[in-house]
Amino acid sequence: MKLTIPQIRDLITELTDESKTLARRQIYIATKIHKLSEETRRRSYTRAPTSSRRITAAVRASVRQMAADFPDLAYQEIATAHGINLGRVSEILHGKR
Question: What residues does each domain of the chain span?
């Protein structure tokens, strides 16, 4: 069955309208995706002030000496005595600093 020109025109109009609807939907989806991707970006922040003192050669030597002199002393006690954090004591005693 052959279509008449008015039928073809109606189908073209219908397809055009559907295409516009799809285009609007694609724009909506693209906008949502963009907003979601922006949510994954790092937000600006300010660093907390440093609470531990700098690790100098003297501090490293003192930590190692204290650990050698008092082998049963907890890392936290060594850290408190030197004004540094527990992780730094561990790094110093395991040769990472």
Answer: 1-34, 57-93
